[in-house]
Design a protein that fits this description.
single chain, 179 residues, alpha+beta, Metal Binding Protein, Guanine Nucleotide Exchange Factor, Chain A, three-stranded antiparallel sheet, 9 strands, 22% strand
Length: 179
């Protein structure tokens, strides 16, 4: 029985580590994924469907969501930067990430004012503020006013709408990013 518990917790630990490093989207097959380019994109959903995985397409173009605790990055402890999974636009820093207990990656502020845009979302009988990528308009999640100081905001994002680069990779890319 003791060996089964050890095996069970080992599998859980491995699965958790694997989900932290999982990349939900293959950027190499997407010609629109350009972290150094902040120019606005106007791409048809037909074209997005060709380059995004079905899960990423559903979340980002059809405003879907992943089930809590199933997407990547919710428990990612690594330092780095989070980009839009569709276009590579810089969205959030791990410095503003916190454990909201919701099952989705949460941040108390975007990387900068031009990272995201907000829009009213009255779907599902609720009034919420939807968060979109400022470059490609892809759905990322929602923002709520129950986050920690200093902003008291909680940007509750879909992990599959994000791409993560560890600190060293982000530092190399940062010099290429035009604000």
């Amino acid at each position: 029985m003791k060996n089964r518990k050890v095996l069970f917790f080992s599998i859980l630990l491995f699965a958790g580590m694997a989900s932290c490093s999982a990349q939900p989207q293959d950027e190499t097959k997407n010609p629109y994924y350009k972290p150094a380019d902040n120019s606005k994109l106007t791409i048809s959903n037909t074209e997005w469907k060709k380059v995004l995985t079905p899960k990423v397409y559903n979340i980002m173009r059809e405003k879907g969501t992943e089930v809590a605790n199933t997407g990547p990055y919710v428990h990612n402890p690594l330092k780095g930067a989070y980009y839009c999974a569709a276009c590579g636009h810089l969205l959030f820093s791990s410095d503003t990430k916190f454990d909201s207990g919701t099952g989705w990656p949460s941040f108390y502020q975007p990387f900068n004012k031009g990272s995201v845009i907000e829009s009213k979302d009255n779907s599902l009988g609720m009034e919420r503020d939807e968060v979109l990528c400022a470059r490609c308009g892809g759905h990322l999640g929602h923002v709520f006013d129950d986050g920690p100081a200093p902003t008291h905001l909680r940007y509750c994002m879909n992990g599959y709408a994000l791409h993560f680069d560890e600190h060293e990779v982000f530092e190399m890319k940062k010099s290429q990013i035009k604000n």
